[in-house]
Design a protein that fits this description.
The chain has helices at residues 3-26, 35-81. The protein has one domain (3-80). It is built from two helices and no strands. The longest helix is centred in the last third of the chain and has 47 residues, at 35-81. The chain crosses the membrane at residues 38-63. It comes from Lynx canadensis.
């Protein structure tokens, strides 16, 4: 492709190139949160997960004890019937 052909194609591609430059400049990054606020949110989330797991563990132990006592009660009833 010679220099004349390149000059002839330039007016065709110039509007497209300007469009790309304008759209690229229009998409700016949103402001990032500050590091201390991110750290606080992470710490609160971690503490919340630990508390939830602790509560689930306590409830699970209570539920297992109740199930065990129901089974033992059934054994006593069966022993009296025999």
């Amino acid at each position: 492709m010679g220099p004349r052909a390149r000059r002839a194609l330039l007016p065709l591609f110039l509007p497209f190139l300007l469009f790309l430059l304008r759209t690229g400049a229009a998409h700016r990054r949103p402001p990032q949160p500050s590091v201390p606020s991110t750290l606080v949110i992470g710490a609160i989330s971690g503490i919340a997960v630990c508390v939830i797991l602790f509560v689930i563990g306590v409830l699970f132990r209570i539920f297992r004890k109740r199930q065990a006592s129901r089974g033992a009660m059934g054994d006593y009833v069966l022993a009296e019937c025999e």
